[in-house]
Amino acid sequence: MTRNTRGLLFVFAVCCMFVPPQAFAVTVGEKVPDFSLVDVRTGKEVALNQVSGPSGVALIFVATECPYSNAFNQVMAGLAKEYRAHGITVVGINSNKSEPLDDVKQHADSKGLDFIVLKDEGRIAEQFGATRTPEVFLLDKEMVVRYHGAIGNSKMPTTKAEQAKADDLRPALDAVAKGASVQVAETKAFGCTIKR
Amino acid sequence: MIASAVLFATVLSSALPAVGEDVVQKIVEPHRGRVVIVNMWATWCGPCREELPDLVRLYEENKEAVVLVTVSLDEPEDAGKAAEYLKQHKSDFPAYIRGFKDFEAFSNALDPKWMGAIPATFVFDKSGKRIFSREGKVTYDQLKKVIKPLTTG
Question: B50 in contact with A at a CB cutoff of 8 Å?
Fold first, then answer.
């Protein structure tokens, strides 16, 4: 075997080895690459940088049928309204395969989700490593993840709207609005599995 | 006679017992010597309801070596509803409902990597060591593969 053929065989072996798809999960402190998803209300694709506020954006993975997610509908709408004034937008992302765009739109309108809701076919949930609803990724104006986890009630998760609180997310939102560091940057959220 | 009637009535009306942060001591350790499948579910969770018959079947077929323990994550006041649903499966596996005060401590006891999505299933070997964790639906075949090496030899 000549040196050249050996070299070729080596290249062949390397190029054809099975390489599993890289699981990419976003971690706190990491910058998120821009992405585009369809806004369920307009049917048009929007980019992350178009829906982010001047101080940042809270991306919240949501579901139409998960009671843990639905318990927070009004809390999320309240946060969207409140933090808009502080330059942070709330954006919902529905990645459940079993919940088509029309259902997500209908749910967003009927449940008063007065913020942008995007439909994901699973790609973005995978990219973020999001597995449950509700699950928050709070990004600052540089698109760096500053907080990941629950909206609230992470000590005692609830399916009851009257008990839902934003006690986990709120301090992080306040810190990002001020450009300060987030004290508790990661909590365990509780909810339903995202069905990709 | 009266006593047994009262007892019977109590059993019928009683909902599921609660389990808290001591979940492993309470529902895994008493079954030392058998493989323990712990399943987290809720009445409103579609995929949970879909997988339960598979889990029950696996338990029924391997009762000597395997025990299934379910923990409902319904609101505690829905214990009756959860118990009612489980009755349909006509099986005798131990069933509990959530009674924790701190979800983080509860979930960490089962698996620190469990981020709290349901359904979730954990398998502990005969010595009580956790050897399998899954967030999302599991099937009969998947779990059978997990328990087979643990129940033979």
Answer: no
The stretches of chain A forming alpha helices (DSSP H) are 3-16, 48-51, 67-70, 73-84, 101-110, 123-128, 169-178
A127 close to B (CB below 8 A) = no
The answer to whether residue A132 neighbours chain B at the CB level (below 8 Å) is yes
User: Which of A92, A86, A65, A84 is CA-nearest to residue A151?
Assistant: A92
| CA gyration radius, chain A | 20
* Interface touch B104/A194, C-beta < 8 Å: no
3-class DSSP state of A120: coil
Alpha-carbon distance of A105 to A97, in angstroms, equals 14
Rounded Cα distance, B153 and B145, in Å: 15
Interchain CB contacts (distance < 8 Å): A and B = 60
The number of residues making up chain B comes to 153
Q: Model-level pTM?
A: 0.87
The full DSSP string for A57-84 is EEEEEE-SS-HHHHTTHHHHHHHHHHHH
Q: What is the rounded CA–CA span in Å between residue B67 and residue A35?
A: 46
Q: What is the ipTM of this complex?
A: 0.84
Determine the 3-state secondary structure of A119 from DSSP: strand
Chain B residue with minimal CA distance to A163? B75
Write out pLDDT tens, residues B110-146: 999 998 999 999 999 999 999 999 999 999 999 999 9
Using DSSP, state whether B16 is helix, strand or coil: coil
The Cα–Cα gap between A38 and A59 comes to 14
Cα atoms in the Cβ-side hemisphere of radius 13 Å centred on B117: 23
